[in-house]
Design goal:
Layout lengths: L25 H16 L4 E3 L9 E4 L11 E11 L3 E8 L2 E11 L1 E7 L5 E7 H14 L10 H19 L8
Antiparallel strand pairs: 1-2, 2-3, 3-6, 4-5, 6-7
Bound molecules: nickel (II) ion.
Length: 178
């Protein structure tokens, strides 16, 4: 497995729509494994392929708590078949928008169809953190970030702070003392 670099906003690749995979073969399985390694190292609970610069509809998730056994999920071509009218609010973050969090309202339960790591069609109905995480990651496949669910005011504030932080990181070391 290999750890991959994670793109951060405003990288244009994060705003594009990803293409479905034809089938889950060895290449896609390796992508899934590399994405899981990248996600665990970050650390994060979900990662979508566009976040590592691959514009394909592949996501990985593990919402197990630290004291639980890992529960890695590998999903290709995930599709939301049904979502509840009932909503839930979670404080969301994103590895592509480091250090910023905001409350996002989404359907509380979803039913999802996807291809698993063996190219088998599966369905999963879930709620709570996993339902939120699946929706967050599927959003990435359509070029949507969690900040796109916020008011323009909040979104711009976060993106401006992010751009500022990125700029200061790129300044040469001597700038700090000049
Ligand atoms: Ni994200």
């Amino acid at each position: 497995m290999a750890k991959l670099p994670i793109l951060t906003a405003p990288d244009a690749r994060l705003k594009q729509r990803a293409k479905p995979v034809d089938k889950v073969d060895d290449r896609v399985r390796k992508l899934m494994d590399d994405m899981l390694e990248t996600m665990y190292a970050a650390p994060g609970i979900g990662l979508a392929a566009p976040q590592v610069g691959v514009l394909e509809r592949v996501i990985v998730i593990d919402v197990a708590r630290e004291d639980e056994e890992p529960q890695p999920l590998r999903l290709a071509n995930p599709e939301i078949l049904w979502q509840s009218e009932e909503l839930a609010t979670y404080d969301e973050g994103c590895l592509s928008i480091p250090d910023h969090y905001a409350e996002v309202v989404r359907p509380k339960q979803v039913r999802v169809r996807y291809l698993d790591q063996d190219n088998e069609i599966r369905e999963l109905e879930t709620d709570g953190l996993l339902a939120t995480c699946i929706q967050h990651e599927i959003d990435h496949l359509d070029g949507t970030l969690f900040v796109d669910h916020l008011s323009a005011l909040k979104r711009n504030m976060i993106l401006r702070k992010l751009a500022k932080a990125r700029k200061s990181e790129q300044l040469p070391a001597y700038a700090a003392v000049s």
